[in-house]
Amino acid sequence: MRASCKIFVMMSVLMGFSLCSSFAQKGKVSKAVDSTIVSQEKIPAEVAKSFKKRFASATDVVWRLIDGNYVAECVAKNIPTEAVFQKDGVWLSTTEELVPSSIPSPCMKSINAYYPKCTLNSYKRKTENNKEITVIVGMYEAHNVKKKLETIVVLDKAGIILRSIEPDESAESVAASEDENISDKKKAKLDAKTKKEMEKDEKLENNPIKISEGDLPYDLLRWISLRYPDYIYKEVLYLEDLDFEDEGNVYRIKIQRSGVGQSATYATLWFTRDGYFLKVDDPFHTEEELQKIAQNTIDAEKLRDEKTSKSKDNAKAEEEKKPRITMATDLDDVPEEYTLAMKRKYPKVKEVAWGEDESGNWIAFYTDQAGKNEVFFTETDSVKWLETKIPIADLNKIPFAIRSAVEKDFPKQVSIKQAWNVKSSAVKPYLIIELYDKKERSTEEVEFWQTGKYKKVPVREEVKVEEKAPQSKEKAKKENEKDKPAKGKDKAKPEQEQEEDTPQFVTADRVSEEYIAAMKLKYPRAKEVAWAEDETGGWIAFYTDQAGTNEVSFENTDSVKWLETKTTIADLNKVPVTIRSAVEKNYPKQVSIKRAWNVKSAVVKPYLIIELYNKKDKSTETIEFWQTGKPK
């Protein structure tokens, strides 16, 4: 008995070794080497850095090298993910494997329309570096459910089908070979069930489905637009047509020439569900004529593209004509005389960037809420301020006379794109207006005086300034008065202009005694008065009290006269309720009152200056109101 037990144990051990050996051999044979896999050590540093930045918490990372790009397969935020990078680390795309129940509704609508009774199998969302999102859906159509043959449909985020990939026929043959092992009785039962399902599908397919033009494949739309550019879609059906049994469901589209009284000019077209042309029924055009129309349309498109390209080349050439500026990478590279001149001119400006033009002059750049300001300096015997270019954030603040000149002297497709105020040490202030031509897709800069007259008449065929109709003297006088700057300090300048007009304070010994005497007479209790000269030659006195800084303007005509006083309103709740209501009613919610001033004037009745702040645009706007709440 003991001997037989030993024999049994020995036999068991031998059989165990035999099975282990067998499994080992099988495992060894089935284990295939994947040549695309790349170890972590061989991943370029730029790729690894870019991947870590985008997928910091990714796990189960496997790298592959496919078509020269590095592909990372991982799990990011519990989602199976595939990311593609160039060898220089540039991210190309990310594909996430999601549950079919989360397919976007526009895509689901298209799938239900074009693939009725399908069974969803997979859903992937691909995001590319140009921000385009592609939806990839895997499904089993009704006649392929049992065979497990998957149809892949690719859609854009709007639900338009871009392409579909039919199941591999070889997979069907493998499935068929597996079916041969099924018993005849079971096979007959399955065939009957499949036939019943197909009959249901046929009934469904024989009922045409109406769809919209926007849901059609791009290739189909392109084919029609080339040959029937002036036609409109009257009826789009997705159905089974006996003339195209091998194609399954197809598109049948009826189009009509646009315009009144065109009811007889119909054409009917057939396309596959992938958008490939099948047939056209057109009593007015032969296929040769349609091909000729298509070629003419393509030629017209090429001509338009060439024209656009030429316009871009012209714009590039114009850009190259502009003086080139070399930006300084280090402040030490900028001559000290220029930095000192900038501090003297604009002491409150910080974070200045510098650039040198081709003539050896330097330009200071600083940014405020309106945009980038440019301050030009020139050197003769010493460094001198030349001019300052200030962006106009709100184009509605361009003088009406200039906007009227642009509207009158330029074609309709030309509009104002950008504008700048320019203050100069050589000439009176003027404006630079950048015009954009929508048709030519080109830009042009035109200079205007503030009165609306051209500083230099642009060389342009469309602009014929000398042929303007003569205005009446009264009308010309009104236009000139409209554009004249108000006396004294402008009380409604935008914030960037207020910063640009930062007062250049001077010592008291430089101020005429008449102004000091006039200030003491007007405000005897004001102490520590600072003085600055305005552009008109008058003087402004600044003194501070509990509310803030107050500004007292004086003008010099025959004698020194008080012009007006601008007093800070410290508590904004003291702004009249009528004004606060007007702001709340006429401006968006993101606009609020930032600052306010009371203004007493020798010329007009008292009024208020309100500075509004737009939280969304981070911009400011100054509005004047009478104390009654009506805009000044």
Task: Sum this structure up briefly.
The chain is of the alpha+beta class and 632 residues long. The chain is built from 13 helices and 30 strands. The radius of gyration is 39 Å and the shape is elongated.
Question: Roughly how many Å is the radius of gyration?
Answer: 39 Å
Low-confidence stretches: 1-10, 13-30, 174-180, 461-473, 482-501
Mean pLDDT equals: 79
Question: Structurally, how many domains make up the residues?
Answer: 6
Question: Can you give a write-up of this model?
Answer:
By secondary structure, this protein is of the alpha+beta class. It has six domains: 37-96, Nuclear Transport Factor 2, Chain: A; 99-171 and 178-205; 209-285, Nuclear Transport Factor 2, Chain: A (Roll); 326-390; 392-483; 495-626, Nuclear Transport Factor 2, Chain: A. 29% of the residues lie in helices and 33% in strands. The protein contains 13 helices and 30 strands. The chain has a nine-stranded antiparallel β-sheet with strand order 1-2-3-4-5-6-7-8-9. Strands 15-16-17-18-19-20-21-22 form an eight-stranded antiparallel β-sheet. The chain is elongated, with a radius of gyration of 39 Å. It starts with a helix and ends in a 6-residue tail after the last strand. Residues 1-10, 13-30, 174-180, 461-473 and 482-501 have low confidence and may be disordered.
Secondary-structure blueprint of this entry?
Elements: H1 2-30, E1 37-38, H2 45-54, E2 59-66, E3 69-76, E4 79-85, E5 91-98, H3 105-114, E6 119-128, E7 133-140, E8 151-156, E9 161-165, H4 169-179, H5 184-205, E10 209-210, H6 218-227, E11 231-240, E12 249-257, E13 266-272, E14 277-281, H7 287-321, E15 326-327, H8 336-345, E16 353-356, E17 362-368, E18 371-379, E19 383-391, H9 400-409, E20 414-424, E21 430-437, E22 442-449, H10 473-483, H11 495-500, E23 505-506, H12 513-522, E24 530-533, E25 539-544, E26 549-556, E27 560-568, H13 577-586, E28 591-601, E29 607-614, E30 619-626
Antiparallel strand pairs: 1-2, 2-3, 3-4, 4-5, 5-6, 6-7, 7-8, 8-9, 10-11, 11-12, 12-13, 13-14, 15-16, 16-17, 17-18, 18-19, 19-20, 20-21, 21-22, 23-24, 24-25, 25-26, 26-27, 27-28, 28-29, 29-30
Helix pairs in contact: 6-7
